[in-house]
Amino acid sequence: MRAYYWPVTAGTLLAASAFMPWITVGNQQYGGVPDLAGIWVLGLAVAAVILASLSIATRKNSRHPLLLVGLAAFGIVFLAERLMVRTATQQGWAVSQAQAIVQGGQAATVIEPVMATGAYVGLAASTAIALFGLTVVVKRAPRVHAEVTDDDV
Fold it and tell me: Three-class SS of residue 115?
């Protein structure tokens, strides 16, 4: 049951990543708890910690739900980060074009969005939870072997 401390730790890191920025554009930071994706990730992190803690306390297996929680958290963090990059790029382009039209000059270059610490921590923690849940699939099969008996006696 000591193995369940791994998803407890990963769930705590996943909860911490929900409060960190996921995208950085210049000095602006996006992502995290105020966004809907951040709230979902926080909820999944709490669920992972609760499931793993209950498994430690009751000595019952809860790897199936941990697999689903880890996969859902990974999907939310990955897709939210990709959508935030796209939205930030389009918003930066629109602002530079609007300023160029108003000022009558050339459009400024758009700063590229960069993946921030929260996305890295969230992806790593959700991967750890999903991999721990995936261990339910990999089981040690009993080794079947025939015993040699001497029946010539």
Answer: strand
CA distance to 11, 44, 53, 69, 133, per residue, from 7 (Å): 6, 12, 9, 11, 9
Predicted confidence (pLDDT) per residue in 81-122, tens digit: 999 999 988 888 888 889 899 998 888 888 899 999 999 999
Query: Could you tell me the two tokens for 109?
Result: 């270059």
The counts of H helices and E strands in the chain are 4, 3
Would the CA dihedral through 10, 16, 19, 23 be positive or negative? negative
Nearest to 44, CA basis, from 19, 70, 67 = 70
Q: What is the pLDDT of residues 33-87, one digit of tens each?
A: 888 999 999 999 999 999 999 999 998 888 889 999 999 999 999 999 999 999 9
Q: How many Å separate Cα 122 from the centre of its chain?
A: 4
